[in-house]
Task: structure prediction
Amino acid sequence: MALAQGKLEELKKKILFTFLLLIVFRMAAQVPVPGVDATALKSYFSEGGAGIFDLINTFSGGAFKRFSVLALGIMPYITTSIIFSLLGEVVPQIQELQEDSEGHKKIQKWTRYATVILCCVQGYGMAAMFESLKSPAGMPIIPEPGMLFRLTTMITLAAGTMFLMWLGERITEYGLENGVSLIIFAGIAVALPSELIQKMDLYRSGELKGIELMMIVFVIFASFYVVAFIERSFRSVPVQYAKKVIHNRVYGGTQTLPVRVDTGGVMPPILASSLLAAPATFANFITDERIKPYISSIVDSLQPGRLLFNLFFAALIVYMAYFYAPIQFKTKKVSEMLQKNNAFIPGVRPGAKTKEFLDFILNRLTFFGALFLVVICIFPSMITGQATNFGGTAMLILVSVSIRVMMNVQSFLYADKLESAYKSKGKYNGTKRRF
Result:
């Protein structure tokens, strides 16, 4: 009982520590970048001027629209981490480093350096973009633009992202779940109450009809159900292990190898959204008046909700799903692991044939997973007419992170229960110990 009480206290500390660091994240998100006219900035975004940067604003918990020190959020770190993961699949030297413990630390160090460089590029582009914006009354958002403001903003935003990385690492080490996932989760979840209040205000004022409000509510609950169902769906592959007798007990037999239907998870939509936001980011570096109108027309055609945006978004999601799924589920390593443990899939030869069979299953599951991602990321916004931020990538992150946190808590308590039962039977102590 004392052991169970100690485990319960440890779980409480993990929960409390996670909440405290998330509160620190929310407090830091309120700190604006120096040199910004907060009144003009609020007036500009109150007219709906976010456009394609809505995803960045959602992931940063509204820090983008406030031009906070955390306006870039944790996305640069995610982007560089994914880039190194992809490089590990095509560059043998990086793959060898990833498989080694010391090499993995070196990859993490390179990822941090690359994150700083990417933050500087994005921070400079964001500063240049905000310098060109004005409120509806004609007031500039940046009263004193110039190179000094751009450099200051670039350093400030890079420092904000590195601070988020540090918070994420602390949450991962002492908290409930992967810190980066929880930071993104908190940034999305914090906008939900204001979204509900806004919809109710629009309904009371008559700007939002009752049937439209019912449609939004239906889409929200349907999306939650579908995402939760798919995220917990697996394809069970039967695996036959060689039977062994250890201490009068038989181990082995038939077991199952679970393969997720949505193997790529939330990364394909995030990568696709980042790629679609890239033209708008780099457009701020173009000053040539002859080229700028063409670039502006391309950026306008890639605004969320436009036909071209939906087509590119769907195509990139499918491509990223097929590209990222083999990284998450390495069929070669799984087949080698089964062969080393004297296990095989019934009807399939060990080795290369097992890898081919697993590749076949993975490709089929990725097709349905990519189709699911396209439907859940595009159709809710098409049905509601961009009237809500519930759905799409945000919905995937909310549900998947919630499921993982619940599974971690259940695993923690279940492991404690097994350990208590194991020791209560006199496994180690007493005159009737087994060994």
The chain has a mean pLDDT of 79. The longest helix spans residues 352-384. The radius of gyration is 25 Å. DSSP finds 16 helices and three strands in the chain.
